[in-house]
Amino acid sequence: MELGKFNTLTITRRSDNGFYLADEEGAEVLLPNKYISDNHRIKKEAKVFIYKDSEDRFVATTLEPYLRALKRIYWFHLMSNIKKW
């Protein structure tokens, strides 16, 4: 499981707070209820971004971080301008 990156993890169990997802080594991370969609099911894979919360715990989200999205937009704009040369 890599912090600050998108990871494809397996949904292993449900709790009152959301789903727990695990990597190949069995390390688990919480995907809070607010990020769960109807497509998420136990034993299925989910692509999630891993970050640390205010208590320094790993947490998963299905949302793309703002800075990452901004970099992608900038890269697209840069590549579009290079092709014009």
Question: Can you give me a brief rundown of this structure?
Answer:
This protein has one domain (6-84): OB fold (Dihydrolipoamide Acetyltransferase, E2P) (Beta Barrel). The chain is 22% helix and 38% strand. It is built from one helix and five strands, in the order βββββα.
How is the topology of this model organized?
Blueprint: E1 6-15, E2 18-22, E3 28-32, E4 45-52, E5 58-61, H1 66-84
Using only CA atoms, what is the Rg?
16 Å
Query: What is the mean pLDDT?
Result: 84
Judged by helices, strands and strand pairing, the structural class is alpha+beta
Q: Give the name of the CATH architecture.
A: Beta Barrel
Please report the distance between the alpha carbons of the first and last residues: 41 Å
Major sheet description: 5 strands, antiparallel
Strand content: 35-45%
Order of helix and strand elements from N to C terminus? EEEEEH
Helix residue percentage: 10-25%
Count of discrete structural domains: 1
Compute the number of strand runs.
5
Note poorly predicted spans: none
**What's the multimeric state?**
single chain
CATH topology: OB fold (Dihydrolipoamide Acetyltransferase, E2P)
Discrete helix count: 1
